[in-house]
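ok so for the tutorial part 2 we go from a plain amino acid sequence to predicted structure tokens. step 1 is just haveing the sequence, like this:
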Amino acid sequence: WLAACCFALAVYFRFSGYADIAIGFGRMLGFRYPENFRRPFTAESLREFCRRWNVPLIPWLPDYLSLPIAGQDRPTPRLYVNIVLGFCFIALWHRPGTSAIMCGLFFGTLLAIEGIGFHDVVQRWPRPLRHVYVLLIVTIGWMLVRAGSPAAAWSSGSVMAGATGAAGSSVGRYMTPAMWTALTLAFIGAGPLVPGISRWRVWV
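step 2 — the prediction. this is what the tokens look like for a chain of 204 residues:
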């Protein structure tokens, strides 16, 4: 679980960092590009997470490929197939390979389930539970990417579920002061505190 959480954070900071650099260079040259990531880890549903992650890409799918992403379209079997296909396309665009297909199928299927009506169920949960739901799905989804193959994903998933056995005590040796510091800063940077810090900085 520690490795899966760290990888999920690494993916977010890597992509959002590249996007921020591109936006900054574009502004230096007179171009204004839209924000690419809007604090996706603060989302309260998988649908909201996807709208906050890689923001310009998600509208591109329905606009240019007619592949909706659990929007306001009328629920039909074809809609759900298109959602899954859209996420497989996104996954392959990011990282070609079997792991990308697994990740695309995982996210696309769960997003289609939300589109059926599960999203309304999630919205009735307490806010902390909604956040846990999103973080759990995202962490497992990125684990599928990191695993690299179906066999490795099954092995990692079995350990994470407690079905097979890595020793829990081995985690302690990784939790050095540097690791605690990095994780704390990562959670703050990916969480909801950044806008408050930014407003405080402007006020000062």
